[in-house]
């Protein structure tokens, strides 16, 4: 009986140490997130970040009101920067090429844009918001050269 009690106390102490360790990691991650958000705010500007926050609030409002299967929630894909996945070595190239468009919101249809903007205006939410409705995006066909003649590679 005594041995079982000692084992249980040892297990309890182990769990407590793990809990403390995880709580510290969570605290560190929250601090890092706060620093990163602060840096992001200083880089891209308050107006765009307010717009990001406003759209997130609206999406959460629709999710709470109509559930996760709502067409607005299902049709909202996130910002372009959240959707792009590339090796870290290309980050600068992507940032320079896309610029502030990285913070455009990608949605399935322009009807979803209208509903989101209406909700933003209804609640007087702050920020500047831009959308890329997929149903309105049309990529033209590109003509690429068939040979490398005259091409310079660095």
From TrEMBL:
GO CC terms: chromosome
Sorted UniProt keywords: Coiled coil
Stretches of the chain forming a coiled coil according to its record: 19-46
Gene Ontology terms: biological process: chromosome organization
Protein's UniProt name: SMC hinge domain-containing protein
Organism: Protopolystoma xenopodis
Positions of the SMC hinge domain: 74-148
GO molecular function: ATP binding
Pfam annotation, one family: SMC_hinge
Keyword flag Coiled coil: yes
């Amino acid at each position: 009986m005594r041995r079982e009690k000692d084992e249980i106390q040892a297990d309890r102490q182990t769990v407590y140490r793990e809990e403390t360790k995880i709580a510290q990691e969570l605290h560190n991650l929250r601090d890092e997130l706060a620093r990163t958000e602060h840096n992001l705010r200083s880089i891209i500007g308050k107006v765009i970040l307010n717009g990001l926050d406003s759209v997130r609030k609206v999406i959460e409002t629709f999710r709470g009101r109509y559930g996760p299967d709502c067409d607005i929630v299902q049709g909202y894909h996130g910002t372009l920067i959240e959707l792009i996945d590339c090796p870290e070595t290309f980050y600068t190239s992507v940032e320079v090429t896309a610029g502030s468009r990285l913070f455009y919101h990608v949605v399935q249809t322009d009807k979803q844009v209208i509903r989101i903007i209406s909700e933003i205006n209804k609640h007087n939410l702050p920020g500047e918001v831009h959308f890329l409705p997929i149903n309105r995006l049309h990529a033209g066909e590109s003509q690429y050269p068939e040979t490398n003649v005259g091409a310079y590679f660095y």
